[in-house]
Amino acid sequence: MSTVATSTPPAGRSTLPAGGAPARRRRRPLLGKNPIGILFSAPYLIFVLAVFAYPLVFAVWMSFHDYFFAAPGAQIERQFVGLENFQEVLADPAVIRSFGNVGIFLLINVPLTVVLSLVLATALNKVVRFRTFLRVSYFVPYVTASVAVVGVWLFLFSGSGLINQLLGPLAPSPSWLINSTWAMPTIALFVTWKQLGFFILLYLAALQNVSEELYEAAATDGAGKVRSFFSVTIPGVRPATVLVLLLATVTGANLFTEPYLLTGGGGPNGASASPVLLMYQRGIEQGSPDVAAAIGVILVIGVLILAFIQRKLAGGDES
Amino acid sequence: MRSTKKRRILAATAVSATMVLALGACAGGGDDKAAPGADARGDITIWYSNNESEIAWGKQMVEAWNADHPGEKVKAQEIPAGKSSEEVIGAAITAGNAPCLVFNTAPVAVPQFEKQGGLVDLGTFEDGVSYIEERSGDTAEQYQNADGKYFQMPWKSNPVMIFYNKDLFTKAGLDPENPALATYDEFLATARTIVKSGAAENAIHPAPTSEFFQSWFDFYPLYAAETGGKLLVEDGKSTFATEDGQKVAEFWKTMYDEGLAGKEQYQGDSFADGQAAMSIVGPWAVSVYKDAVNWGAVPVPTSTGTPADETYTFSDAKNVGLFSACENKGTAWDVLKFATSEAQDGALLELTGQMPLRKDLTTTYADYFAANPTYEQFGDQASRTVEVPSVSNSVASWQAFRDAYSKAVIFGEGEISSALEGAAEKIDSLVAKD
Fold first, then answer.
1. Which GO CC annotations does the UniProt entry carry (chain B) (predicted)?
2. Which of A35, A270, A286, B289 could form a disulfide with B293 if both were Cys (CB 3.0 to 4.6 A apart)?
3. ipTM of predicted assembly, 2 dp
């Protein structure tokens, strides 16, 4: 697109008269300084619009309508129902419980993920021997299909499984995955373990940016390893911590596979049901995508609030 | 700066508005009318199940049809992979690319497919209703919707029975040829003996998980037997919050409370692995356990020990749906009749061991049952089955039942009577909703 040619003031001279509005504003090209950049970013923009923005807006639209999936030729009237779907969702104890469950999950999973991945990444960063082996070991669960790993955990945490055999009389009864108290913490532990490799990788990358000189300066000031960790490492990887917090929260809030497979559909008695599992049940199995969309909208709002709080608390001035 | 921000907001608003408008247009449904096409003929596509024996049946059926109908070819494929066949079919309906026929349509999903506008009322074919009712007899009635219409062709059933492991029964000191499993008391005593003897970790191990369909393999067969063939919902009202429903639930609760039935999900086949001495399965299992387990089968128990030839059970049927996306519905209907003809039903029985939903099954295929006595009791049982009720919000209703059952019976929380009443109330309102 062409732009109107304007006379530009010489460099170093202000266009603003003292205390007043600009006499003549510089017109910026409509497509920015580098229009070709739009071309390069277009594929990703289209991807984001098609895969994220469109479904999100569609979900919001669905949540305010009487909506169900229908054949293309079917004569369907999509009535606007206002907040009816939200009322139904918020009056459903199973949905409320699922949000509580995922809250418990996040309370365990997110701090555990941040702490373990930072400590392990720091340790891995110092290790000289077996470094590659250890990195691969932590990363393998992340790249292994949940379906395969779930089988192993079912074996480990079953009533007669290895964990209970090791614990002996201390083993909970009923066993972990069918125990209302322990089902969600066990899932949180599983997810933490499974995702750890990815977050360790993020921290390892961040640790490369922490200057060695800072550690040397801290050592000169008499700081030991623990003091250096708290005074140099943690502040040094703060941007990564914000990212880990955010990603762990978002992926945790989208919990589905584990309650679907590990506890057989959110059992026992819905103690491990997550909002996304209920969305699947309501939307896909039971043919009420409008209700499922309402759950999804509430979940998105909840995650946004959590992300905002995290950013305020942990983000500092980094971004 | 402020102007840039304003411009961004404007741009974002414009994009959002465009999307909302586009969505509104998309969601409006369109004004297409269902293509008549009931007499249209030509090539069609069908889907069938992906298990080995049904593929064999499907292939021979298609070959036989194609050989005689060069102008109306059938192209067949297995149902595409997905979490479940019902999800795949539901997605295909929404996308408008469902095949003409699916030979694996679960009755529980039919009301939803019908609501989606994905199925053809078979009564719109001139001989639709008469063909179905002549073939299946009185059983066909269970497959009608609330308006008495057939949106599914009753095809085959897998009447579930109690399979038991004769070797484990012998190990437990029980009579493997005449096991005492007819009444709840007998069943419980036998189960206690099995577990106490250490012959198996569990007497029986129905999946204790929360999926909506799991009650079809624990509560529902016994409820059908206890009530002499009652459906979970009849005439728009739940039937199970009664003394009969309570008896069945109490029986299972005792099984769980005493550790006779496993509360944890088992990875694999607990019956084949010898982890459980009994299982509730249909005749499809005969060929599966043929070489793995020395098995026997008896009808499901009742509180009073109903005679075998009067005992009802759950049908575990799979039917055939004719989908509205089909262009050549005339051919599809003809293929459907061909695939459910006496000859093809015989082939189905021969190749899969599953029971065609056909009246006088045992007399029509007397030679088969004489040659395969292990299937005879299933053939007889097939005449006394109950289906999942064909009602609105069928899956949601079963999920409501499962949740209540799981809580009160499997995990023993709260009173059974109030759990059943609560579930009944919820199901009644779900069934009443559109």
1. ATP-binding cassette (ABC) transporter complex, substrate-binding subunit-containing
2. B289
3. 0.84
